[in-house]
Amino acid sequence: MRNRLLSMLITLGAFMLLALMMSACTRGGRLEVRAVPTQAYVHLDGVPIGDASRSRDHNILLTGISPGEHTVGVYNYGYEPQEHKVNITGGETTYLRVPLTPVGGTVSGPWGRIQIEGDRHAAVLLNGKTPEYLVGHADEFNNYWHWKQGLLVPPGTHQLTVLERGTTIWSGPVTVAANQRVIVNVKEGGAQTTTSWPEGETLNNIPRFQAGIASATVAVATPKAQISASSAQVGCGGSTRLSWSSSDAVAGEISGLGEVPASGEREIQPKETTTYKFTASGPGGAATSSATVNVDNAVQASLEVSPAVINYQRVGTNVVEQGSATIKWSTSNADSVSLSPFGSVSPSGSRTVQPAPQQTAAGTVSDTVTYTLNASNACGGSETRTATLRIAGSVKPAVTETSFETLLASIYFPTAYPLEDAADVGLLRSQRQSLSQFAEGLKKYLEVNPNARLRLEGNADRRGSENYNFALSERRVEIVRQLLLSQGIPSAAIATQALGLGNNLERDAVRRLEERNPNKPTMKMVGRRAKEDWLAHNRRVDIVLLPSGLISARFYPYNAGDFNILWQAPRPAHQVVEKAQ
Predict the structure, then answer these.
(1) CATH code, domain carrying 440
(2) pTM beyond 0.70
């Protein structure tokens, strides 16, 4: 029985101990903060709680704090603020000591004075509603009779906010002039009374914060701001570095960039000339500074075509000559470049062009091709350049063998001509005209068929020895060759062959030719005339077109004005020479 009772007592004690432990864990914790200076205002999780200047031990005790991590902020104007993370345990006290570092230097006037009545323990914020804008508590600014307690501010309009443990007691504008005092009663809806304050004229170069046993003076400084650019001139796409700094400011803003730290730097890449306005804000108001970055968006561009004129020759569908030109362009400060009609190109470069004219019909060619260079950048700059190229030449109809065949006629000579001692005489006027017409057609034919060639085959009639006739036929092909050369036919296109009697036409062949000859003889070719006619047909040079093998027509030129000299029996040499001239 005794053992059972002892066991029950032990179990009951364990349950009671566990209950006490659970109760301690669920109860709130405490935080005891000791701040230096004692007038510093303590915030818990952003909510202003109060100061310890009125407590005996200069500590502020916060109770009923939920267990877990919290943020403690300690602020006093004229000192660097501090924030600390603390872990609160239920039922326990956490101790935190926060010595603040004073901001050096003094502050110059002029000043006005704001006196706050109606709530001694409230936190006072100036020109902002975050803890960084705290300038003190109302008890520091509610008397200026025996104990010097004053909030000195730069002349102007200030936004005053009075908070009691996070609740706004009053907020509104207060306008104070130099050497004037404005009394604000926050319990009466912010009622304001303005009086003179001559003492302001005697104050200069004083600390931001000074406190005695029962006195405190806060001299709020006007912020200063400065901003500059490492380079005030950039090209499109270029960058520069903005650097800014401030004093007596807790926040900053740069136009176009938004909120920024009170001091810092940033790389920027503006697309247009921009003025960056830096505004530094603090309890003493706001200060501004500007820096202008000029953006050069001008695009430089050049375009040229060389040569300015190219030649073009076409015969039929065969392009005989097609010149080329070089387009050169260059740009700067551009990120998008196109060259019409080609499209996008690199910022600088060159291109060889070989344009053809639009003209398809036969005639003179005089076309102009225009090239347009467009260069632009993302900053709105652009430039356009044009250059023209003229195509000069001609389009000629094609010369085919079929159309060329009508000009391909054998060339005939008087008996024994050219003479051995007058090798350049014997090509009569009618035959020279025929050769000239043939040469004009041949030049057109060669434009289409540049690989075409001629073979001149010299013939002689049966009279005379074999050697004599061979030499005679050589002189005949040579005199024909020389005339063709004089008409512009290239030497490489002409070959010659002396046949002598090797290709004589028989009498039956001559009769068949006469039957088909479009130019019929005016006399009957019988008897001796028939023989003379046969001999006349063999005093010729045939023209063979290669590689096709097309042979000149052997129709005797009965309609020639000098027919009698060509055809008749030999006459005295001086008569033949006279006609040949």
Answers:
(1) 3.30.1330.60
(2) no
